[in-house]
Amino acid sequence: MKRIALILFVATAFVSCTQKEDNTKENIALIEKYIQSVENLDSEAMDNILADDYIGYGPSFNQSTNKENAIANWKSASEDLYKSISYDKNRNIAVSIPDGENKGEWVTNWAEATIVYKSNNKEVTFWANTLYKIKDGKITKSYTIYNEADILNQLNYTFIKK
Fold this sequence. Notes:
Layout (H helix, E strand, L loop, with lengths): L1 H38 L3 H7 E8 L6 E3 H14 L1 E16 L6 E14 L5 E13 L2 E9 L1 H7 L8
Parallel strand pairs: 1-6
Antiparallel strand pairs: 1-2, 3-4, 4-5, 5-6
């Protein structure tokens, strides 16, 4: 009887670990697919990856958007503003938070991003970090952080103290 209990315990633990690892791989693959949609300026693919109740925060502290506005803003930017976007030195890490306010499956992406603008062919390169919450194979929440002032400085904007 003890052997059967031990075998069941080990089998359950193995299945749990395997299932967790599979979620990690699937979650990272989802974020890689999302980043590919960004690099391809593909708002339709983004629409399929974001959950209907998606909310995105950042890069400014009080800035947020829902799925409808995020897709509309992306369509406008990709049609009128960006010639290309690339994520280089791209790194993803997945984590599962078991309880509390941030309970769930998360993937963080840290990348060196480069944008080329359509109007003047100017190129900017900056560090970007985004945390993605994933549920049921969709992105439900994101927090994006990058240095907007660095981008504006590379575009030769002048900063004036008020």
